Task: structure prediction
Amino acid sequence: MTPVPPPALAGAGGKATTIWLYEKSAKIYPRSVSGLFARWRWAVVVLTQLLFYGLPWLVWNGRPALLFDLAARRFYIGPMVLYPQDFIYLTVLLLLSALGLFLFTAVAGRLWCGFACPQTVYTEIFMAVERWFEGDRQRRVKLDAAPWSLNKLWRKGGKHAVWIALGLWTGFTFVGYFTPIRTLWAEAFTLDFGPWEWFWVCFYGFATWGNAGFMREQVCKYMCPYARFQSAMFDRDTLVVAYDTARGEPRGSRGRGTAPKAGQGDCIACTLCVQVCPTGIDIREGLQYECIGCAACADVCDDVMDKVGSPRGLIRFATENGMAGGWSTARMWSRVWRPRVLVYGVLLLAIAGAFVTSLALRLPFRVDVVRDRGALARLVDGGGVENSYRLQVMNATETVQRFRVSADGLPGLAVAGPSTIELGPAEARWMPLALRVAPETAASQRPGAHPIRFTITVVGTGDAPAAGATRVVEASTFVLPR
Result:
């Protein structure tokens, strides 16, 4: 099928003018910047990457301190051993993360986006590598416009080689949270990864290289949903990066150390605030959803104000109400504790408190009871009745534990056969178990299902409960035939 060309309209002089419905976005070349917020941003970059790259290498009791072993269905977090049945803890962690993000957004806008979001962090790292190979903004613009040469080839090639190495190391570290990273490191020298390890190392490495090296602001502007719904959490008392229009307008250029002319604002129209913006916006046009709150424009504007002899803060963190009313910083901060912030804060503290309490009171083992559906009840020698069960006992500690099983709920209900089980560190095992009642009990009770309880107790070397023994009680039923 032949593509249909865009409509051609008559322009000036009767010439046809082509109008494209979708314009290709121009490449953004952010200028390097230094200052208070840039130093904070790099401090967060260093901190987050030390945590991300370092945590898989930490050891606890001879195994990784943080490991999500999907094959064995074990999750190790420091001294804790979690099972899939503990999924509720992951749910609560995600809820705490969401509420924390809502709280920070209500107080200080997209502070997470500008300083700690992985997209921002890796973009900062990749741009630092790019500046090291290709220079700052003007040199990068000239290099991209220049024809291919040996100089351009080695600069572009060296940059991408480092980018790919960083991406693959990031993918390797990501997989190290699911496969012991020391085992993974030994396998790396022989390229003996499993198929899923190969897939995730390459996929995560490619995603890091593509997002931080090429897509950059496109991820923040078009792919990330946070930019779209953040307005629901903003109000006029939210701290955002703002341009002081009353002080800066009207704009006009002037020399270093020269006072503004009569009727002229402090902004000298240098456009440096636009050149340093990683999303390419002009903060002087007001709050925009593309702004990620990195405050690079505030750093560079403060530097310009120092050079021309004007006070700092033409671009700064402020609230819309504060800007409109000319409020002091103290008055703007006094509006932090407004209803929505209090609601987010109370919910966050309550859930965090319940989460910590639940972890502190968490039992050192778990038990699931499953009836044998193949034979609900059977008669045994002497007229007694026996029911079969399967108990899954999970040791959530890293020491050997011995458990004793008992049951009650019917007169003379007893365990038929062995009633103890010993589990190794972090071991889970299915235990077949039979419960039996005497003939007189079967004769005196009504037919059908009767509620009973299993009690599983940690015991010492003998059959007696250990000192300070912990027990778990699970409900089930015992069926008496007609």
Observations:
- Residues 365-480 form a domain with the Immunoglobulin-like fold (CATH 2.60.40.10).
